[in-house]
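Hi R.,

Here's the chain you asked about this morning:
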Amino acid sequence: MKVQDIMTSDVQCCGPDTNLAAAAKMMWDSDCGALPVLNVQGQVMSMITDCDICMATATKNNPAWDITVWETVSGKAHTCHLSDDVHNALDIMKREKVRRLPVVDDDGVLQGIVAMNDFVLLAGEAKGGKAPALSYEDVVRTMKAISAHRVLVGI
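And here is the predicted structure, written out as tokens:
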């Protein structure tokens, strides 16, 4: 099964100059916890999460409307492609410890987003000797890798 078969196509997104209050409102209105950050060509530059917004407003000593998305995000985007197999997307999520991946075309332009929720809803168990497209074990292994605590060096 391909990522394009399970992704969400109608995705809210923001730009690097969007303020955190506006980004938070987009997340609230769309019932999502992350937004792709796009450049003017529609290419994914990064992702901003609700946690990023909370931490930035708590630590930067400025109101959310005075902090831009670009001041908050890492500037690194982990993506997958429309034609990627769902297992490949899970491998990226495990490696990068992310719960959501923007789905891009060959030019890096946003086409959709795939989230752990999509994989959870797709997962199944073997029936009649036939393996599911995605097993519960595949999903749990990915969640376990994503959820593993970071190792802090020097503490």
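One quick note: Strands lie at 34-38, 44-49, 80-81, 100-104, 110-115.

Cheers,
M.
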